[in-house]
Amino acid sequence: MKETNTLPFHLAIPVYDLEKSRDFYKNVLGCEEGRSSDHWVDFNLFGHQLVIHYKEKSIEKIKTNPVDGKDVPIPHFGVILEWNQFHNFSNQLIKKGITFIIEPYIRFKGLPGEQATMFFKDPCDNALEFKSFKDFNQIFEK
After folding, report:
1. Quick one: 107 and 79 in the same domain?
2. Per DSSP, which regions of the chain are E strands?
3. What is the pTM of this model?
4. What does the alpha-carbon distance between residue 119 and residue 16 come to, in Å, rounded to a whole number?
5. What integer is the mean pLDDT of 23-31?
6. By C-alpha distance, which of 125, 103, 132, 101 is closest to 52?
7. Is the dihedral of CA 95, 97, 98, 99 positive or negative?
């Protein structure tokens, strides 16, 4: 499928500590809170709908795949941001003391698909990746 969807995505993820996660998404990532109940909370994640749902803690070990000599957590999710927006956001996270799984860095520098990326976890071990492409026309460049 080659179409570009400009509509927001919806993603629901499990969290075992609803209040810590609510604080993280609202006060660390800066997401606006929407509707909520005692078991879930909606957030505006850069214009997309993220919902955290309470679920008991899992004992499943987090898996990784090697990429660029780094251990990329699987699964992970996030948003592709504009270039300057990515750098401003990553600087805000650094100032807030985020512990990165993979610190912000540039992949494919000077090559097709040049991108900035970073990985970190929320309080309930959900892995997030935020990235940006130097040229948005090269998001799917080989």
Report:
1. yes
2. 10-15, 32-36, 40-45, 48-54, 63-67, 70-74, 80-81, 100-107, 115-121, 127-133
3. 0.91
4. 20
5. 97
6. 125
7. positive
Asked if 44 and 10 count as a contact pair (C-beta separation under 8 A), the reply is no
Domain holding 115, by residue range, is: 64-142
- Mark whether 87 and 134 lie in a shared domain: yes
Give the CA distances from residue 56 to residues 2, 41, 59, 77, in Å, rounded to whole numbers and listed in that order: 38, 16, 10, 20
- Same domain membership, residue 37 and residue 16: yes
How far apart CA 5 and CA 120 sit, in angstroms, is 26
Bridge-based pairing of strands 127-133 and 40-45 is unpaired
pLDDT, the chain, mean: 94
Higher pLDDT, 62 or 99: 99
Express each pLDDT in 43-56 by its tens digit.
Answer: 999 999 999 999 99
One domain, residues 109 and 131:
yes
